[in-house]
Amino acid sequence: MSQVGATCDRGLALGAQTRHIEHSKRSQALVLAGTVLGSGLAFIDSSAVNLTLPVIQAKLGGGLEAAQWIMNAYALMLGALVLAGGAAADRYGRKRIFVVGVALFTAASLACAVSPNLPILIAARGVQGLGAALLTPASLALLGAAFEAKGRGQAVGVWAGASGLTSAIGPVLGGWLTDTVSWRAVFLINLPVAAVAVWLVVAGAKESRGSNTGPVDWPGAAAVTAGLGAIVWALTAAPKAGATPPVVGGLVLGVAALAAFVAIERKTPNPMTPLVLFKSLTFSGVNTLTFLLYAAMGAAFFLLPFQLIRAHGYAATAAGAALLPMSVGLAVLSPIAGRIAAKVGPRPMLVVGSLLLAAGYGLLAILSNAGGYWVSVFPGLALMALGSGIAVAPLTDAVLEAVADEFEGAAAGVNNAVARVAGLLAVALVGFLLGGHADPSSPAAREAVAAGYRTAMLVSALAATGAALIAVVAVRARRRVVING
Fold it and tell me: 342 with 428, same domain?
C-alpha cells in the first residue's frame, strides 16, 4: 500500500489552510529538500520493509502473526496518531515537531536494525510509526508556511513526485539491501538520510504555528489507538486461537474504546475528527470508497512479496523489481488523471479506476499458477497500476469537493487516516485467509500462502467493485456541499 501513500498524503497539503511566512528562495529550497527527505523516510521504509518480511521470518523465526505485527505496529501508530500529529505541529510548532518526529523515527530505525528478537523489533516499529505520525503532517505544514499560494501548488507537486519516487525505489532498494547486505541494512539506511533532512529544515525553515491554540486532542488519540490496537490484536490472534475469551474480550474492548472515541470527539472543543463532516453523504461515501480501495491494496501488497518469494522462488531484489509497474503507473497517470478529473469530475475516474483495480486483482487470482512473472503476475499488476493511477488522485478531489472550504484540511486529514486504517485492518484479516500458516518451517507454508493469496485477491476484487458502485451512488460531479455545524 505504500506505493500510493504519497498521493494519499498530497490531499493533506492541498486541504491545509496554512498562513504563509516569508522565506527567501534559498530557504524555500532547503525546506522543500528537507521535507522531501523527511517524509521520504516514511515512504521508503514502509515500502522496503514489505520485501524483508519473509527473510526476517527466516532469520528471527515467528509465523504469520509476527509478519503481520511487523507491518501493523507501524501502521497502527501512524494511522491512529497522524491527525493528532498534525494538531501537535500546529500547536507546538511545525519545525519543532518535524525534528522530534524525525529523531524518533531515526532512533527507532536504529533499534529495528539491532533488534535481537521479534518483540523488540515490533516495539521499535511502533515507535517508528509514532515518529512518522509527527513528521509527515509537519513536513506538509512546513511546505505550506514556506511557500505563498502561487508557489505552494508547485512545491506540493515536487514533494508528491519525489515522495512517489522514493516509494517506487523502496521495494527494489529493500530487496537489494536484503540480498546483498542484510535485512537490517533496510533500517540503517534511514540514519544518514534523517540527519540530512533535519539539517536542511533547521537551516531553512522559520518556525510557524496554526491559528488554533487549543489543546491537542490527546484523549481522542489515546482512545482510537487503544480501540484499533485491541481489535487488530484480536483479529491477528483469532485464526490460531479461535473465539477464546481473550480474543472476544479484545474485540469487545476495542469496540468500547472506539465508542469512547466517538463520545470524546462529540464533546471536545478541538476534535481530531470533526464528526460534523459525516453529515455530508458524499463525504461519508467517499471515505467508505477509500476504505475499500486501500484495504484491497493493503492486503495485496502484504501478500505479493510472500507469493513471489515463497511460491515463485524470487530473490528479494527481483521481488522488489517485480512491483515496479505499480509505482510507474501511479507516477505517470496520477497527474494526467487529476487534470481529467478537473474537467469531467472525479466520479467517472473513480468508477473506471476501481473497476480496473478489480480486474487486476481478479487476474492475479486466476493466473496465480499460470507460470512465471510475465504470465501470472504482470498482467494483473499492470491493470492495478492503471486503475490506481486513474483513481487515487481524483479521490483527493472528491474528498475536498465533498465539504465546504473551511473543512478541507480536516476532511483531507480524516480521509488520510481512513486510508491508513484500512490497510492496517486488511493486514490483520489476512490470517483468516492463510489459516494461521505462512511459517517458513511449515511444509504447508507454500500451499497456504498460494491458497490465501488467491482468496485475498478475489476478496480484493469484490472490494474494488464495491468501491465502484459507491462512486456511482455517492460521488456527485462538481457538487459543493455546505455543512452547517
Answer: yes
Distance separating alpha carbons of residues 90 and 78, to the nearest angstrom: 18
Distances (CA, A) of 168 to 192, 316, 323, 331, 478: 20, 15, 8, 9, 32
- Position 301 scores a pLDDT of 86
Q: How many domains does the chain have?
A: 3
pLDDT value at 191 more than 90: yes
Rounded to whole angstroms, the Cα distance separating 33 from 28 reads 9
CA nearest to 29, candidates 132, 134, 162 = 162
Q: Answer yes or no: do 341 and 312 share one domain.
A: yes
**Same domain (yes/no): 192, 244:** no
Do 386 and 397 share a domain, yes or no?
A: yes
Same domain, 203 and 238: no
122-155 pLDDT, tens per residue?
Answer: 999 999 999 999 998 888 888 877 877 666 667 7
Give the span between the Cα atoms of 51 and 302, in whole angstroms: 9
Domain boundary among 208, 235, 255: 208
Place of cell 507460470: 371
Residue 139's pLDDT is what?
85
Say whether both 170 and 241 belong to one domain: no
- Mean residue pLDDT of the chain comes to 84
- Non-local (6+) Cβ contacts of 447 within 8 A are none
Identify whether residues 336 and 282 lie together within a single domain: yes
The domain containing residue 183 runs over which residues? 1-208
What is the predicted pLDDT for the residue at 47?
75
The H-or-E segment that residue 327 falls in is helix 324-344
Q: Do 170 and 239 reside in the same domain of the chain?
A: no
* pLDDT (tens digit per residue) in 236-256: 888 887 889 999 999 999 999
Q: Which residues contact 37 (CB under 8 A, 6 or more apart)?
A: 193, 194, 196, 197, 200
Residue 484 pLDDT greater than 70, yes or no: no
Q: Give per-residue burial for 132-143: e unless 16+ CB within 10 Å, then b.
A: bbbbbbbbbbbb
Please report, for the domain that includes residue 343, its CATH number: 1.20.1250.20
Q: For 403-440, what is each residue's pLDDT tens digit?
A: 876 777 778 788 888 988 998 899 888 878 776 555 54
Amino acid present at 58: A
DSSP 372-401: SHHHHTHHHHHHHHHHHHHHHHHHHHHHHH
Q: What does the chain come to in residues?
A: 485
How far apart CA 73 and CA 428 sit, in angstroms, is 11
Kindly report the number of other CB atoms within 10 A of residue 431's CB atom: 23
